[in-house]
Automatic annotation (TrEMBL):
GO biological process entries: cell adhesion
Sequence similarity: Belongs to the neurexin family.
Name the UniProt record assigns to this protein: Contactin associated protein like 2b
Domain EGF-like: 532-569, 943-981
Transmembrane stretches, start-end: 1190-1219
Main location per the UniProt record: other
InterPro entries in the record: ConA-like_dom_sf, EGF, FA58C, Fibrinogen-like_C, Fibrinogen_a/b/g_C_dom, Galactose-bd-like_sf, Laminin_G, Neurexin-like
PROSITE patterns, sorted: EGF_3, FA58C_1, FA58C_3, FIBRINOGEN_C_2, LAM_G_DOMAIN
Length: 1267
């Protein structure tokens, strides 16, 4: 009973959090598949952790056209999925996609981060892998599409879905009926709205809801060209000077006949508009807060009374569910007849199944359909939608010739080739802008002596052309792709997008039959789904950049925006006049961008470069000595408004960052009082920043109602504090400079004493002048390696940029770091010449590095700029050195950070010693100086061991400068250890194989810190070097095999008698060039080393300690190793043409023994395979145990052992003496660079003063050793 109660309680808890098990309780019949391997491999056995049948589902063939489908027996909310391999087998699925549907047709792929998402699956048959969905999906049917599976076996799958029940009232709108929800009062004055609904439709236009009032207020939600548009007007004034109309659009391709959710939340003028988890927040135009509606609000269209006489927008055609309006369930009220549905001809509460059967094409897709052969007519029609400007819609060969129907730069073009007798070609084109993502129809007819092309059913604009000869069909029609190379191959090769309603010879093609293999054939076509994606919605192009797209990517045009980069994120202008001066510029007018990538647009200012100061000047439009005329209302005074050639925010950006600002004002008067000093209310005042009134004048200050002469006590009449206040008939003037910058600039001057007879006044307001840039010079000095500053979490989910200046005498340090659960972002000085930018957004660590030609620890300022967006990552140093890394075509795009931002050091890493200045993140300058004032070890403002010890880095290891020592970088070697002297090797059992794939030039992969060998890129080699060590007692075997995308290869094998053979095949020879070493059995259990190097034809081979022997390739042999592809160790498992001698004689059963220190050029494949935490393209098949291979040396005789023991003992004694001598300062080594760090005035002082406490800040486990 206790177990039952516990289970019931757990089930209720799972239900409350929508995490119930959905698939396991289903019967066998709820599972179906494309095929099964056998009766015991049926789809019904594919339940997680079940072992019935053969332990899961496997299809008859393992390819990308297989699928496993689950019928959940009702619509469910799905929050997570899990997969497992087939029980106790070699069959599992490594990657897959998820489709879902309400009806078992018109499938919708699960998308994440703007792409059709590929889930990572299993790497063995037992461990279940669960994925929490980024958002909840709703559907009855789930379909799993395997994309990659076990190399040792085939597709094997067990699945589970997690979620909870879903139910909602559904209403089918036929385009005629409208639901009218009548208010309880005739007029509603609404301050707050919450409206939600879900809809699906195949029509791109239609009104979903509408309400309006007699005062002009309205609220409308409608589809326009498959985009959702929200229009709202809270009211305009009677003069029309305040317009309240606000229109916001969201989404795209919403006519896909899939469910979309909408949520509108309004409070006063603030609105949140959410479509499918994407929220736009905005404020309505105008000044009113209430939405005044009369009588009713309608759903599904406008009521007849509200439609204009011209007809107005179309009503909605499709289905809606879950309609809620301010707490009322409209769909439920409709079912209970509580709202007006009288306009419906036939109101139904079910959603009809879509009758279309779309097909989705990518760049490798083709669909072949049969037609009439030897016919004299070609009649083809179809609908398509695409973003790509060009692509092949159809190609059909003729006897002789062919017909190509293509999209070329957004228009449909038909090429008819006829090659009988003399060649002839007829071209027809029609339409424009057809790559807009909308559905378009095409009908092509060639009959007797003419051809006709019709676009979108508009027969009045059909294009006709005469044919010089009657055509004759072969009967094969290729849609979306034609890849054979022939004399009449089409100019376009492929198509990216969707097609539906394909007709051939006037008959609708049954794509269901195509899917079942009963009609035609297809390759890489996704049937019964249209997975086209609008990559420009939401628009990742910033600052007004224009987005354009193709089937698989988008690009931004930044022309005329003032910004650059893949997403128009980075400003092309400097932040201030101060920065232009330090670039060597002279006085002139310049465009500046104070917030860089922030929302402020660039603007033009005048820069006056003086010896000691740099002045920024902003001019207004008030002419000097402007006469002040009498206002129409004496009580209001005369208002003079000043306009600057920039927005208020742009002006505020100048004054906020400036050290000092000033503005000259002058009031010339004759019988026109100014401030009415000393006791009266001022006649004149001015308005400044923030629309605040100010009652002081130039030369005075806030709160002092005086002019400059009053401060200096030299006014014309000593009884007054302003010259003009004496009210004399002679012309007087009060002039001076306003210097309180938080009040500037002057935007209005209100003059109040010009109404009397004889009163005259003239006003002068000079330009705003500011000097100094506190953001540019905002700096902090880090004096110890443990000192840091912390700031709030950096928010740069999809777009982030960081820029700063630094100077140091150290050669290592973390500039800044911000961490998340797994995501992170970090900038650091990796060495005296290298700056690194590393991050992880969920696709694995990525590291960009730039190297300077001159040392960076030269105590001079250097500038670092880093940017990451959904398209690429960029790192730039000193505006010269630059590295760009493209983002993966599919993967996570959002940077999720949670910890504080640390500047200087974090996470136990060695911090930065030196100065950082002008640190700007996403356009916001961090106030380093203010934070440094209250942080120990950091002060506001700013006032090489490798040359000696680099020889200790062995085997190609690279010496890296540290602040108080050095380290050896072994990443490009086949060794490990502090000095790159430790062998990296592994013991191979029978059948074990290590594979390392070179990447193509176009591939971009993340490279993490400390990568074991650079990620290789395929290329053509005229020279290479291969070195490794091995020990074995088994022959024959393949030690190393290096393949290519051609028939070139390099192989090192052990023959049956244990002798070594090197086989080179570079082309030009009938048989590979071989080097056979017949004089020695290498399979004797002893360790052996092999070093092979080639330069053009010259091959040099060194074996163990023997002298190097040279060989030469024959003159007939090529010297280029073309397109190096893969390195195999221990065994060869390769597709394509392979030397049969290798496979038949040496490849089985595989190498058994130990391999170590394997290196090919700069690649260490074995090390990469044995370091799985480091990103690489290496993989292991079978069992590989890491070993340094020393354990496999065999004894020859007892005397040899004794001799070796004596030698080792002698060496050890010598080493002990040397170690005691060289490491006698272990843990207490001090340089002359650290003493006095705590008391130093700046980082440079810390480096000079030499403080013993310096090394005490380093964790004991991370101390470095020095010789």
């Amino acid at each position: 009973m206790l177990n039952v109660c516990t289970t019931s309680t757990a089930a209720r808890a799972a239900s409350q959090r929508c995490d119930e098990v959905l698939a396991t309780p289903l019967p066998y019949s709820a599972f179906s598949s494309s095929s099964i391997l056998g009766a015991d491999f049926g789809a019904g056995y594919a339940k997680l952790n079940r072992r019935v049948g053969n332990g899961g589902w496997s299809p008859l063939d393992s390819d990308r056209y297989r699928w496993l489908q689950v019928d959940l027996r009702g619509r469910k909310q799905i929050t997570a999925i899990a997969t497992q391999g087939r029980y106790s087998s070699s069959d599992w699925t490594k990657q897959y996609r998820l489709l879902y549907s309400d009806t078992g047709s018109n499938w919708r792929p699960y998308r994440q981060d703007g792409n059709i998402w590929t889930f990572s699956g299993n790497w063995n048959s037992e461990r279940a892998v669960r994925h929490e969905l980024q958002y909840t999906i709703v559907g009855r049917y789930l379909r799993f599409i395997p994309l990659e599976w076990s190399e040792e076996g085939r597709i094997g799958l067990r699945v589970e879905a997690y979620g909870c029940a879903y139910w909602a009232d559904v209403i089918n709108f036929d385009g005629q009926g409208v639901i009218s929800y009548r208010f309880r009062q005739k007029k509603m004055k609404i301050l707050k709205d919450v409206i939600s609904l879900r809809f699906k439709t195949s029509k791109g236009d239609g009104v979903l809801l509408h309400g309006e009032g007699q005062q002009g207020d309205y609220l409308t939600l409608e589809l326009r060209r498959a985009k959702l548009v929200l229009q709202i007007n809270l009211g305009s004034n009677q003069y029309g000077s305040i317009q309240g109309h606000t229109s916001v659009s969201s989404g795209s391709l919403l006519d896909d006949d899939h469910w979309h959710s909408v949520l509108i939340e309004r409070y006063r003028r603030s609105v949140n508009f959410t479509l499918d988890q994407h929220t736009q927040s905005f404020r309505t135009n105008g000044e009113f807060d209430h939405l005044d509606l009369d009588y009713e609000i309608s759903f599904g269209g406008m009521p007849v009374s509200a439609k204009p006489s011209s007809g107005g927008p179309q009503n909605f055609v499709g289905c809606m569910e879950g309609i809620h309006y301010n707490g009322d369930n409209i769909t439920n009220l409709a079912r209970r007849k509580r709202v007006d549905t009288s306009s419906f001809r036939n109101l139904t509460y079910t959603c009809p199944v879509s009758q279309t059967f779309p097909a989705f094409f990518n760049s490798t897709s083709t669909l072949q359909l049969p037609g009439q052969s030897e016919a004299d007519t070609v009649s083809v029609s179809l609908q398509f939608r695409t973003w790509s400007p060009s692509g092949l819609l159809l190609f059909t060969p003729l006897m002789p010739g062919g017909v190509e129907l293509s999209l070329v730069e957004g228009k449909v073009v038909v090429h008819i080739y006829i090659s009988q007798g003399k060649n002839a070609r007829v071209d027809i084109s029609s339409g424009s802008g057809l790559n807009d993502g909308q559905w378009h129809s095409v009908h092509f007819l060639a009959l007797e002596s003419f051809a006709m092309l019709t676009i979108n059913g508009d027969e009045t604009s059909s294009v006709r052309a005469s044919l010089p000869i009657q055509i004759r069909t072969i009967g094969d029609y290729y849609f979306g792709g034609y890849f054979p190379r022939t004399d009449l191959s089409p100019s376009q090769r492929s198509f990216q997008g969707c097609m539906q309603l394909i007709h051939v010879d006037g008959e609708l093609v049954d794509l269901h039959a195509v899917e079942k293999g009963m009609l035609g054939s297809f390759e890489n076509v996704s049937l019964d789904m249209c997975a086209i994606i609008d990559r420009c919605v939401p628009n990742h192009c910033e600052h007004g950049g224009r987005c354009s797209q193709t089937g698989d990517t988008f690009k931004c045009s930044c022309d005329g925006t003032g910004y650059t980069g893949a997403t128009c994120h980075t400003s092309v202008y400097e932040q201030s006049c101060e920065e232009y001066k330090h670039l060597g510029r002279t006085s002139d007018s310049y465009w500046i961008d104070p917030d860089g990538s922030g929302p402020l647009e660039p603007f033009k200012v005048s820069c006056n470069m003086m010896e000691d100061k740099v002045w920024t000047t902003l001019v207004n439009d008030l002419p000097p000595q402007s006469a002040v005329s009498s206002g129409s209302d004496p009580a209001q005074g005369t208002v003079l408004r000043l306009n600057y050639s920039m927005t208020t925010d742009q002006v505020n950006a100048i004054t906020s960052s400036a050290e000092h600002c000033e503005q000259y004002v002058a009031y010339a008067c004759r019988m026109s009082r100014l401030l009415n000093s000393p006791d009266g209310s001022p006649y004149t005042w001015w308005v400044g920043r923030g629309n605040e009134k100010h009652f002081y004048w130039g030369g005075s200050g806030p709160g002092i109602q005086k002019c400059a002469c009053g401060i200096e006590r030299n006014c014309t009449d000593p009884n007054y504090y302003c010259n003009c206040d004496a009210d004399q008939r002679q012309w007087r003037e009060d002039a001076g400079v306003l210097m309180y910058k938080d009040h500037l600039p002057v935007t209005q001057v209100i003059v109040g004493d010009t109404q009397r007879s004889g009163s005259e006044a003239k006003l002068t307001v000079g330009p705003l002048r500011c000097q100094g840039d506190r953001n540019y010079w905002n700096a902090a000095s880090f004096n110890t390696p443990a000192s840091y500053l912390h700031f709030p979490t950096f928010r740069g989910e999809t777009s982030a940029d960081i820029s700063f200046y630094f100077k140091t005498s150290s050669s290592y340090g973390v500039f800044l770091e911000n961490m998340g659960n797994n995501d992170f972002i970090r900038l650091e000085l990796k060495s005296a010449y290298m700056v690194s930018f590393s991050f992880d957004v969920g696709n694995g660590p990525v590291e960009l590095t730039v190297r300077s030609l001159t040392p960076l620890n030269d105590d001079q300022w250097h500038r670092v700029e880093a940017e990451r967006n959904v398209k690429e990552a960029v790192l730039r140093l000193d505006k010269q050195h630059r590295e760009v890394r493209a983002a993966p075509p599919q993967g996570h795009t959002q940077l999720q950070l949670y910890s504080q931002l640390f500047v200087g050091a974090s996470g136990g890493q060695r911090g930065f010693l030196g100065c950082i200045r002008s640190l700007k993140m996403n356009g916001v300058t961090l106030d380093l100086e203010e934070r440094a004032k209250v942080t120990p070890g950091v002060k506001p403002g700013c006032s090489g061991h490798c040359s000696s010890y680099g020889m200790h880095c062995q085997n190609g290891g690279k010496c890296v400068e540290k602040y108080n020592g050095y380290s050896c970088d072994c990443s490009l070697t086949a060794f490990d250890g502090p000095f790159c002297t430790d062998d990296v090797g592994g013991y191979f059992e029978s059948g074990t194989m290590v594979r390392y794939d070179f990447m193509s030039d176009s591939t971009s992969a993340p490279v993490g810190k400390g990568v074991s060998g650079a990620l290789g890129v395929e290329g053509n080699l005229t020279q290479e070097e291969l070195s490794f060590s091995f020990s074995t007692s088994h022959a024959p075997s393949v030690l190393v095999y290096i393949s290519s995308k051609t028939q070139d290869y390099l192989a090192v094998v052990l023959r049956h008698n244990g002798t070594l053979q090197i086989r080179y095949s570079l082309g030009g020879l009938k048989e590979p060039f071989t080097i056979s070493l017949d004089h020695r059995n290498m399979a004797n259990g002893q360790p052996h080393s092999v070093n092979i190097s080639r330069q053009e034809r010259l091959i040099q081979l060194q074996l163990d300690h023997y002298p190097t022997v040279s060989y030469s390739l024959p003159d007939a042999s090529d010297t280029v190793f073309n397109l190096v592809k893969t390195i195999f160790l221990g065994k060869v498992f390769e597709t394509g043409q392979i030397d049969p001698v290798l496979i038949e004689r040496y490849n089985s059963p595989g190498f058994v023994g130990c391999l170590s220190r394997v290196q090919f050029n700069r690649i260490a494949p074995l090390k990469a395979a044995l370091r799985p935490a480091i990103p690489s393209t290496a993989s292991i098949q079978g069992v590989l145990v890491e070993s340094n291979c020393a354990a496999f040396e065999c004894c020859v005789c007892l005397c040899l052992i004794c001799i070796i023991a004596v030698v080792i003992f002698t060496i050890l004694c010598t080493l002990v003496f040397l170690v005691r001598h060289m490491f006698r300062h272990k843990g207490s080594y001090h340089t002359n660079e650290a003493k006095g760090a705590e008391s130093a005035d700046c980082a440079d002082a810390a480096i000079i003063v030499n403080d013993p406490a310096f090394t005490e800040t380093i964790d004991e486990s991370k101390k470095e050793w020095f010789i």
